[in-house]
Amino acid sequence: MKTRKLLMIPGPTPVARSIQDQMGRETVAFGDPAFVKDFKELLEDLKVLFKCSGEAFVVAGTGTMGMEMAIANTTKKGDNVLIVSHGFFGDRFIDLCNRKGLNADVISSEWGETVPVEKIREKLKEKKYAAMTVTHVDTSTGVCASVAEIGKMMKEFPETIYIVDGVCATAGEPEYVDEMGIDVLLTGSQKAFGVAPGLTMLWVSQKAMDRRKSLGTIPEFYIDFEKWLPIMKDPSKYYATPAVNLVWALKESVRIIKEEGIENRYARHKKYAAAMQDALETLGFKVLAKKGCRAVTLSNLVYPEGTDDAKFRGLLAEEGIMVAGGLAAYAGRMFRLGHMGNIDKHDLVSVIATIERALYRAGMPVELGKGVGVVQKHLMD
Ligand SMILES: Cc1ncc(COP(=O)(O)O)c(C=O)c1O
To answer: Would you indicate the residue range of the signal peptide (predicted)?
Structure first.
């Protein structure tokens, strides 16, 4: 019999059966009254869950489209944009902004660390920035930015739109849009929501909507807030065809989140991350992100000296889990493990046990059961 494969890459994450069922439903017209009602309820739920008094958007596309949508609707050619980067996905905003004729300034941290808030404040004082981007969790480093603390500081810079990339965070890391002073929060369906890839979700403050208005006609067509807003107010209207089955799938994911309770979901992610990170360190891996800025949605694990990345990840796949490799300078030196969305205790124990078997088969020193014991202890706390 074939061993089942657990999908433990940092997105897409495992899709629960009830969410899959929504994707398997017979597709209806986007104007179908029952679908329109479902879509409307979903948008309302999203605003309530993430505490946003502004607008919510759900549009077919990926997280990268959300990044582009955030920038396109809040800046115009020639504007200054500040990019706070904690890795590969923070850097993705650089090319995006450059192509749009924006002047992008970047402040970066070493991989595994964050840019201090004071440094961001000093940079913002240098000139007028139309927008600033912060990646909540950079998937390349497993670093979590101090989104709330930065939001507090942003009150000193009311002319700057605060954009948060929540692709690897939203629904796992706490995010309260109004309270944190976030102007645009963007995310994708395939990570902590546990839906298949294909939807971008954004939460937009009134301030950011006003900015969009002040820009007049923008060059972008599909991703224009002003084109989508009437549809988000009344989903029976047409602008471009909504991804009907993915909308249902997201609605089911939101139902699961509400059933769990979003605060409980945040607490669960925190507990699971501590269990996994502790167990993996016990097994000899080093968590790249420094303590104090570690994400709860994934862990980026630097190998012990002498580990053959391809062999190790190959053995892991044979033993039953899929993980991702390191990016950029960490390619071959690290693996990335997602632990977000709709996973449970069984997954945690299996994953650590599988990693122990792969280490054993790779000839690395490992005491079978040691990591599992650490997870078990965390789960009993
Ligand atoms: C933090 C972050 N931002 C943006 C993206 C891009 O999202 P997508 O691949 O859905 O376009 C990713 C993808 O992993 C990500 O992790």
So the answer is: none
Which ligand 1 atom is nearest residue 166's CA?
1
Residue 325 belongs to a domain: yes
Q: Which of 121, 113, 63, 59 is nearest to 93 (CA)?
A: 63
pTM: 0.98
Q: Average the pLDDT over 162-174 and give the result.
A: 98
Residue 340 within any structural domain of the chain: yes
Residue 1 lies in a domain: no
Residues 63 and 126 in one domain: yes
> Which positions ≥6 away from 367 have C-beta within 8 Å?
none
377 CA distance to ligand 1 centroid (A)? 33
- Nearest CA, atom 5, ligand 1: 63
Whether 1 shows a pLDDT value over 90: the answer reads no
For residues 192 and 281, membership in a common domain is answered with no
Instruction: Kindly provide the b/e burial profile for residues 94-133, where b requires at least 16 CB atoms within 10 angstroms of the residue's own CB.
Output: bebbeebebbbbbbebebbbbbebeebeebbeeeebbbbb
Domain count, the chain: 2
Q: How far is the CA of 89 from the centre of ligand 1 (A)?
A: 7
Q: How many CB atoms lie within 10 A of CB 381?
A: 7
Spacing, Cα 342 to ligand 1 middle (Å): 19
Q: Does residue 282 share a domain with residue 247? A: no
Residue type at position 224? D
- Ligand 1: residue of 85, 89, 202 to mutate (most ligand atoms within 8 A of CB) is 89
pLDDT band at 149 (very low <50, low <70, confident <90, very high): very high
Check whether 2 has a pLDDT greater than 90: no
137, 144 in Cβ contact below 8 A? yes
| Full residue range of the structural domain in which residue 313 is found | 6-12+261-380
* pLDDT above 90: residue 311: yes
pLDDT-derived band at 232 (thresholds 50, 70, 90) equals very high
The residue behind tokens 């979901």 is: 265
195 shares a domain with 154:
yes
Q: Are residues 189 and 272 in the same domain?
A: no
